[in-house]
Design a protein that fits this description.
about 10% strand, signal, transferase activity, metal-binding
Length: about 350
């Protein structure tokens, strides 16, 4: 989510270069043979498209949300078909901003970020769902026996990240649980977790497959209230956005890129340990706790990467519309002048599955 770009305290390490062209290398660690020809068909993964440079913007330092990209890079699958994929490291500019400005062709986004960018007129479109469901939840310390429902959060203190979606989302969940939705917010960014662990605040919204695991491993476990358990609509926590104009002008290259990306994420979903090792290998020195990376990847593979039919990447209008309608009703979808939209958008136009390879 887009709180989320500013809150992705996923990793402790960083990449040092301003522009990292990731060199492809293969065979180490070994990729299961079953994936060697896992994708082909149409103009996608196995089809050479000629030399093409594609810039891919990250939302944060490399982490398990990016594993499929790094799997494909490490295996040399992009290079095999003539694609020179350059990873643009996290910066102060959001990936959607870079894509809209023509400084990147694709990048990591979030359903709410993508919707807000498109509502404001950015020339981006969601082309791939990295995670099929929410990856965050309301997190409280596990030893808080007084907190058994979101309604217990009334009057307490929330450690937030400054994103406009946080407040209405939390209010909706708390009210759905029977509370009033009245609470105090302090914007702490990535310091929110430490504040929670120390007892200075009462709740925050961690990524359960990273900060949740990290908290458990550090002996400060959390318990969670999952949004959808209280009637809140599901959402694609992480998506890949692309440039509408670039995709229009380069349809074969776009389809080929997405086919290989899909192949990388399918391996990450089917073989999480192998994929985690490839992510670590691609980013030497970035991870201080490699077991945390592997446990995170296993959790994503088990719960969030695959759709109901076991594939990766698909999106549907129902999920886009349900959460999109909440954003519209909450008044957080604004036009280029900052005015709330007065007409609900056609959320079916905010994403496309046309570039994906059929299962």
């Amino acid at each position: 989510m887009s709180t989320l770009p500013s809150r992705r305290a996923f990793l402790t390490g960083t990449l040092g270069s301003a522009l990292l062209a990731v060199a492809a290398c293969s065979g180490d660690p070994a990729v299961p043979a079953a994936t060697a020809d896992a994708t082909d068909g149409s103009a996608a993964p196995g089809t050479a498209v000629g030399p093409t440079t594609i810039r891919f913007a990250l939302d944060w330092t490399p982490n398990t949300n990016h594993t499929g990209l790094y799997v494909a890079l490490q295996q040399g699958w992009f290079a095999e078909i003539g694609l020179d994929v350059q990873v643009l490291p996290y910066s102060s500019a959001l990936p959607d901003t870079l894509i809209d400005a023509g400084a990147a062709e694709f990048g990591i986004s979030f359903q709410d970020s993508s919707a807000r960018a498109q509502a404001a007129g950015a020339g981006v479109v969601s082309v791939f769902a990295v995670l099929q469901h929410w990856a965050t939840a309301i997190g409280v310390r596990a030893d808080r026996d007084d907190l058994t429902s979101p309604k217990n959060l009334d009057g307490l203190t929330y450690a937030g990240f400054g994103d406009p979606v946080e407040q209405p989302l939390l209010q909706a969940v708390i009210r759905d649980a029977g509370g009033t939705g009245d609470f105090t917010t302090v914007t702490l960014g990535t310091s929110a977790y430490e504040a929670l662990y120390s007892g200075d605040v009462d709740f925050t919204i961690p990524f359960t497959a990273w900060e949740g695991i990290e908290a458990e491993r550090n002996g400060t476990p959390m318990k969670y209230f999952h949004y959808t358990d209280y009637g809140f609509p599901d959402a694609y926590a992480v998506v890949v956005d692309g440039s509408r104009s670039w995709i229009r002008d380069h349809p074969e290259q776009a389809r080929a890129f997405l086919g290989v990306l899909q192949r990388g994420y399918q391996l990450a979903a089917d073989y999480p340990d192998t994929a985690a090792e490839l992510l670590i290998k691609a980013n030497p020195g970035a991870f201080t706790d490699e077991d945390l990376v592997k446990e995170s990847q296993r959790t994503l593979a088990a719960d969030l990467l695959k759709s109901a039919d076991g594939t990766v990447g698909p999106q549907d209008a129902a999920q886009w519309s349900a959460f999109g309608r909440f954003l519209f009703d909450a008044g957080v979808l604004v036009d280029a002048d900052g005015a709330p939209l007065t007409t609900e958008p056609d959320f079916g136009s905010y994403f496309t599955t046309d570039l994906l390879t059929a299962p």
